[in-house]
Please model this.
Amino acid sequence: MADELLARAAELQRRGEPFALATVVRCEAPTSAKPGSKALIRADGRVHGWVGGACAEPVVAREALEALRDGRPRLIGLYGEGGRVASRTEGILEYGMTCHSGGTLEIYVEPYLPKPQLVLVGHGPVVETLVTLGQAADFAVVALTPDTLPAGLEQHRLTEHCSVVVATHADSDEQVLESVLRTDASYVSLVASRRRAAVILERLEKLGVPAERRGRLKAPAGLDIGAVTPEEIAVSILAEIIQHRRSDKTHIAEAELPAAPVARVEAKDPICGMMVDSVTAKFRSEFSGLAVYFCCRHCKEMFDQDPERYRATLSGAV
Model:
């Protein structure tokens, strides 16, 4: 199972898809999972592998998705009655083990996010320096030439989380920018003088590029740090890209996650009290027009036997 999960993880990394890997690092009987048990959680909430049953999996899936959003690993503790020890749990996200069997699990959840993409279109010393600087800053750098468009853009799928720098030096500025601005790349810049940039913007308007697309173009490229040499200009551009990524709503911790297919709702299991994610919950019932979510089949079966008994506890159901 571990080999299969790691192979799946390697394939997801190759494809640039985000995921989190959860590993059981400590347990106290009775637990079904053992130290070293692993699960892979994808950005849509799907879980592959095993780190515990109905009490553990929803918590791990929820924390894994949060780890993908904030980019930080976390250590989760699921503790049965009497399992908490204050001196041991500092830095651990604690949850009660609501399963009847009890037991304790400590699970390490680590997010794996794809490298941010930096696409460089053009040539010259600024592009050459950006290749080196981008790789050193751990970007996935792609260098394209104007004659490779639009095939290159289709191949590399410029999403809203991609940064593009155009340095075609008047050879084909308008044509390249028209193609790039029609993609979802959130940062697009042009290496040019202010006068040349103004002319390019006018021509893009005449070519029919919508105003909201033209408004995404940063021209001239780079922060105003008084850069003069190609190397300094490249530094100013990369600094601007980093500033954009870290301050913009497309921060990498959120950037690579696809939009949730449905609205996420957290509701309390009326039987055991566990908080359950509507997207990852496997068990649910309908009662008085409400969707009721459960952590496991046992809780659902108990509820279905006499739902009226639990009416007062359904304030968290949706």
Summary: Residues 230-247 form the longest helix (18 residues).
